[in-house]
Design a protein that fits this description.
alpha/beta, 2 domains, 8 strands, about 45% helix, about 20% strand, globular
């Protein structure tokens, strides 16, 4: 099924038909198939909605750059269009950025929120600062490289210093990804009022555990559960995640 908002055509799926609703906000590049085990468990007790973000699977990317606020506006409009009352939000990684904005900036009525290894809280480590400085200095050296070799040199630097997600993007999503990862959402966290459960993998290399601890400290009504696993704890321990979510929402 498709939902239209301004110039966006957003594909979504609905699973189950219960009184309480769960909206799943996936991570960047994740698909409905990565959540299928969790959806099949949750739909027994809830009506579950999940969408394709612009640029992924069936939702086309627009002909302009986007920001995280554009994504949040789309989801906000989707919630209104679907008239989602008794709403619970389940987010992972990039999806947590949207959840923070919905709850902390827009104050969408949300019963409860589950945040799994989410992004949105930026804190550059010394290692990252050094890496960024080295990259910028090496880019400056390109002025001394012959023009016919410059593009190859810059391309090599980009592949060497970019994250896997960043370097694998096609050109029309490059600036969007850059806009998103450079947006720090700390200022909205303290204004989240709905009960929030934070679930984290203890060996998450992508969104380190300090982010989960920060959220737990600054979201007024929150709890933190740390499980053995990585960034994709919901795939590694789907049954445990399902039981935790069910108990929390109940």
């Amino acid at each position: 099924m498709f939902f239209t908002y301004n110039e966006y055509q957003i594909y979504y799926e609905k699973h189950g038909n219960k009184k309480k609703n769960i909206l799943i906000l996936p991570g960047w590049g994740e698909t409905r198939s990565t959540f299928i085990n969790l959806i099949n468990s949750l739909k027994k007790d809830y009506t579950v909605y999940i969408i394709d973000y612009p640029g992924f699977l069936k939702s086309p990317f627009p002909n302009h750059d986007m920001s995280i606020y554009d994504y949040a506006e789309i989801v906000k409009a989707f919630i209104k269009e679907m008239n989602l009352s008794n709403l619970n939000i389940l987010s992972h990684s990039f999806g947590g950025r949207i959840a923070i904005i919905l709850a902390g900036k827009y104050h969408i009525p949300i019963d409860k929120m589950v945040l799994i290894d989410i992004a949105g809280i930026n804190r550059f480590s010394l290692k990252k600062k050094i890496k960024t400085l080295v990259y910028k200095n090496l880019k400056l050296l390109s002025v001394f490289i012959p023009q016919k070799k410059k593009d190859k040199y810059l391309s090599y630097l980009f592949r060497k210093f970019s994250s896997l997600d960043y370097s694998s993007l096609n050109s029309n999503m490059y600036n969007t990804f850059k806009n998103i990862i450079n947006t720090d959402l700390k200022k909205y966290v303290k204004d989240i009022r709905c009960p929030s459960l934070i679930i984290w993998g203890n060996n998450d290399p992508d969104t380190p555990l300090y982010i989960g601890k920060y959220l737990n400290k600054h979201i007024p009504d929150s709890g933190l559960i740390i499980l053995k696993g990585t960034h994709f704890i919901y795939l590694e321990q789907p049954f445990i995640i399902y039981k935790i979510i069910k108990e929390f929402i109940k």
